[in-house]
Design goal:
5 helices, about 0% strand, about 100 residues, single chain, mainly alpha
Length: about 100
Protein backbone atom coordinates (compact mmCIF):
# COMPACT_ATOMS: atom_id res chain seq x y z
CA UNK A 1 0.00 0.00 0.00
CA UNK A 2 0.91 3.64 0.22
CA UNK A 3 2.53 3.18 3.64
CA UNK A 4 4.87 0.54 2.23
CA UNK A 5 5.86 2.88 -0.61
CA UNK A 6 6.56 5.68 1.86
CA UNK A 7 8.65 3.33 3.97
CA UNK A 8 10.67 2.24 0.94
CA UNK A 9 11.34 5.89 0.10
CA UNK A 10 12.37 6.65 3.70
CA UNK A 11 14.72 3.66 3.82
CA UNK A 12 16.24 4.73 0.50
CA UNK A 13 16.87 8.26 1.78
CA UNK A 14 18.34 6.90 5.00
CA UNK A 15 20.65 4.60 3.05
CA UNK A 16 21.82 7.51 0.90
CA UNK A 17 22.48 9.64 3.98
CA UNK A 18 24.48 6.89 5.66
CA UNK A 19 26.48 6.25 2.50
CA UNK A 20 27.28 9.97 2.22
CA UNK A 21 28.32 10.11 5.89
CA UNK A 22 30.43 6.95 5.56
CA UNK A 23 28.94 5.41 8.71
CA UNK A 24 31.10 2.51 9.85
CA UNK A 25 30.05 2.52 13.52
CA UNK A 26 28.29 -0.81 14.34
CA UNK A 27 26.46 0.75 17.32
CA UNK A 28 25.14 3.50 15.06
CA UNK A 29 24.04 0.91 12.50
CA UNK A 30 22.19 -1.10 15.19
CA UNK A 31 20.43 2.04 16.44
CA UNK A 32 19.49 3.00 12.89
CA UNK A 33 18.13 -0.50 12.24
CA UNK A 34 15.99 -0.33 15.40
CA UNK A 35 14.71 3.11 14.43
CA UNK A 36 13.92 1.91 10.90
CA UNK A 37 12.09 -1.15 12.26
CA UNK A 38 10.03 1.07 14.56
CA UNK A 39 9.25 3.44 11.68
CA UNK A 40 8.15 0.49 9.55
CA UNK A 41 5.89 -0.78 12.34
CA UNK A 42 4.36 2.67 12.76
CA UNK A 43 3.65 2.88 9.02
CA UNK A 44 2.07 -0.57 9.03
CA UNK A 45 -0.13 0.36 12.00
CA UNK A 46 -1.25 3.52 10.21
CA UNK A 47 -2.01 1.39 7.17
CA UNK A 48 -4.02 -0.96 9.40
CA UNK A 49 -6.03 1.98 10.73
CA UNK A 50 -6.78 3.17 7.19
CA UNK A 51 -7.86 -0.34 6.21
CA UNK A 52 -10.10 -0.57 9.27
CA UNK A 53 -11.69 2.80 8.51
CA UNK A 54 -12.22 1.65 4.92
CA UNK A 55 -14.02 -1.48 6.07
CA UNK A 56 -11.27 -3.93 5.09
CA UNK A 57 -11.18 -5.87 8.36
CA UNK A 58 -9.13 -8.74 6.91
CA UNK A 59 -6.50 -6.34 5.54
CA UNK A 60 -6.35 -4.58 8.90
CA UNK A 61 -5.76 -7.87 10.70
CA UNK A 62 -3.02 -8.81 8.20
CA UNK A 63 -1.21 -5.48 8.70
CA UNK A 64 -1.41 -5.75 12.50
CA UNK A 65 -0.27 -9.38 12.38
CA UNK A 66 2.75 -8.37 10.29
CA UNK A 67 3.77 -5.88 12.99
CA UNK A 68 3.33 -8.47 15.73
CA UNK A 69 5.29 -11.05 13.72
CA UNK A 70 8.18 -8.58 13.40
CA UNK A 71 8.33 -8.34 17.20
CA UNK A 72 8.65 -4.55 17.21
CA UNK A 73 7.55 -2.69 20.33
CA UNK A 74 6.27 0.72 19.26
CA UNK A 75 4.89 1.75 22.65
CA UNK A 76 6.73 0.86 25.89
CA UNK A 77 5.10 -1.89 27.90
CA UNK A 78 3.50 -0.88 31.22
CA UNK A 79 6.36 -2.29 33.30
CA UNK A 80 8.92 -0.41 31.15
CA UNK A 81 7.15 2.92 31.80
CA UNK A 82 6.96 2.35 35.55
CA UNK A 83 10.54 1.16 35.91
CA UNK A 84 9.60 -2.48 36.38
CA UNK A 85 6.86 -1.91 39.00
CA UNK A 86 4.14 -4.37 38.04
CA UNK A 87 2.14 -4.13 41.29
CA UNK A 88 -1.28 -3.02 40.08
CA UNK A 89 -2.37 -1.80 43.52
CA UNK A 90 0.57 0.61 43.66
CA UNK A 91 -0.12 2.07 40.23
CA UNK A 92 -3.85 2.36 40.96
CA UNK A 93 -3.26 4.14 44.27
CA UNK A 94 -1.10 6.72 42.48
CA UNK A 95 -3.84 7.50 39.94
CA UNK A 96 -6.40 10.17 40.87
CA UNK A 97 -9.88 8.93 41.65
CA UNK A 98 -12.52 9.23 38.94
CA UNK A 99 -14.48 12.42 39.26
CA UNK A 100 -11.78 14.06 41.38
CA UNK A 101 -10.81 17.60 40.47
CA UNK A 102 -7.26 18.86 40.42
Amino acid sequence: GRAADELDAAVGLLSQREAAAGSLDPASDARTFAETAEECATCRLHEALCLLKGGDDAGCVRACTDVLDDGVTVVPLDDERSGGDTDEETSESEAPERGATA
